[in-house]
Design brief:
ten-stranded mixed beta sheet; alpha/beta; five-stranded antiparallel beta sheet; Four Helix Bundle (Hemerythrin (Met), subunit A); single chain; 16 helices; about 575 residues; 3 domains; Rossmann fold
Length: about 575
Amino acid sequence: MASIGIFQQKLVIDFSYWDGKNANVPILVCLGGEAPIEYWLDGIGIIDKAAPQFRALVVYIEHRFYGQSIPFGSLDNAFSSDEIRDCLTTEQALADFAEVIKFVKRNITKHDSPTIVIGGSYSGMLAAWFRLKYPHFAIGALASSAPIFSFEKLPIENEYCQIVARDFEEISKTCANNIFQSWNMIDYLASQPSGIDQLTKTFKSCSPINSSEELKAYLIRLYNFAAQYDGRFNTWTRYFCNKIGNRRNNDILEGISEAVSGLNSFPVCNQIAGNVSFAVDSESIQAWEFQLCSELVTPTSCSGNSMFQPQQFNMDLYVKNCRDKYHIEAHPNWISTYYGGQDIKSSLKNFGSNIIFSNGLRDPLSRAGVLSDISDTIVALTTKQGSHCLDMNLAKDDDPNWLKELRSKEIRIMSQWIKQSTSSKASIVSLNHSIKATITWLIRGRGLVWETLVRVKRGENGWTSSSALGNAPMGCKKGGVIDPFGINGRVSTREDEVISPEPETPSEKGEECYLRFVSKSAICFDPRLEKEGVEILREGVIVPDREGMGAVAEDVECSFFQRRARTGCAMWIMDDKSFV
């Protein structure tokens, strides 16, 4: 497919632990999923533990059509063209990741730096698929809670609701039984005159509930969410059961309503009616729903042997709804065709290596994951108490020992991959992008410095002085630099001199000289200085190597901002290159 446009794709590069351009220093790449990349930036447990141990560079890549990586600025604009919208695919997302990794290796690290891709849930599937499709870009993959067997009519389709029910039963059998009884209570009330009005009032809905099915669907999503993301200490299932477990008869619905209201920070009312989702933003919801229609078709049913009412998945209705909403045909078999589906175990065994599949067995999606070793190098790590992507959560001092041990096992395995990796050049293939990507860097971390190179010419009135420099003169003088910024200014007669963060005694060159300013923060020179004999030759970020030396990154716009981050200062660096 020919290129049909350019969009900005966001990545975050964390230099906090990086040991420089050393062939043995790895790159840990967090693959974005169905949310803005900021979702991951507060910390990923396994990365927080592995990066300092490996002295690794950490790269976070945002998924196309999410966050700030949406073509044409908004999803409405992108989805206004079927041709653009149809570029939201897993295939294209993997190609994006490959391009970004190639970009990082060309511009920051070494081309043969061992790279490990990491993801959770949907991005966990992407990590496993990336290792299969692009083994020359990554030596291994960690796929946390990756439900790669979720597609087509697989035998696990009834097990999701059964595991949800089991999680609640382990907290309180009375609680699970009360939830089971509540469905018939809701149906009965809805069938009575003014019954819907009574349900709207009982559950404090912000707008009238349309039907019992709407209310039940909302509650099912809450219970599923509670079980799937139950945390280290079963926080959410305990919360619900504390509200529901001791209720009797008609008081059961009041207990459920109290639990629902307690989830809101400002419980004036509950947003029950309408298409309600717990995603982070409306555009992410829309993009994810499109993916669920276009290729990520995941049948789910409930057989009735649980705390839920029986419910069968209707593929014909699912396909019709996708056609009505997005004017596309759902492709329930595509993932299985492209990545392997039920046969992916054979594909992994025959063609794959170096993949960790981690799963917590209290996660309802775990039954769609890899729960036993496929080979010596494709291993399954399971925890009986774990929930969804728990190893990806921010590591804390009070994490239970089984969670700490899980992360330790993952690090030991990844360490073996790094030791076994060779320095041979990867075979870089030419990728066929249907949308080019313009990279936006967010660089943060210790060890970065900002370098500005200027040429100063002596004017009729002597060396330049400007209010832009705080009314201080800037220029060359024997024995040093007049440095109005109070930083390590440096003067030299050679523009191509090797960069050093240390100042040294300058040499003079008649009526002009070159000055290098090296700082831990960005210096944005006022363009007006050009009229006063100051010519800005280059400004950019120095990426230091192990000896403290470095090379300036591509020429960049001088714009930066402060944000809350573990390492303090963050700078936007805009690279106006696009790659095919």
